[in-house]
Design goal:
106 residues; mainly alpha
Length: 106
């Protein structure tokens, strides 16, 4: 059975929003994160390795939501962590990658 690893529209939308915020505020994300966002925004199917990388990103960066300098989710003065989170697909990206990763191990 072939698994569709095309990013859902909500994931693509988050990535596009992250790119917009990065362009507007000049913060959040690395070159890797920006490349990932472009791929997600274009809804290019992810490889198994990509899915594992995305899932791992979220596992490592969940702590960013606890930052005290910025209010998480504020799009008028977003934290670098929030922008990066969106670049990787946001909460929907995390759920999508984790679901695919779990299915691959089943």
């Amino acid at each position: 059975m072939t698994v569709d690893r095309t990013p859902p529209e909500a994931v693509a939308r988050n990535a596009r929003r992250g790119l917009e915020l990065h362009d507007k505020f000049g913060r959040g994300g690395t070159d890797v994160g920006l490349h990932r966002a472009q791929s997600l925004a274009a809804r290019k199917p992810a490889s198994v390795h990509d899915v594992e990388t995305i899932s791992s990103y979220f596992a490592r960066h969940a702590v960013d939501k606890q930052a005290k300098t910025y209010k998480w989710g504020d799009e008028t003065d977003p934290s670098p962590g929030f922008v990066a989170w969106l670049l990787w697909g946001g909460d929907e990206g995390r759920a999508w990658a984790d679901e695919l990763k779990a299915a691959a191990k089943a």
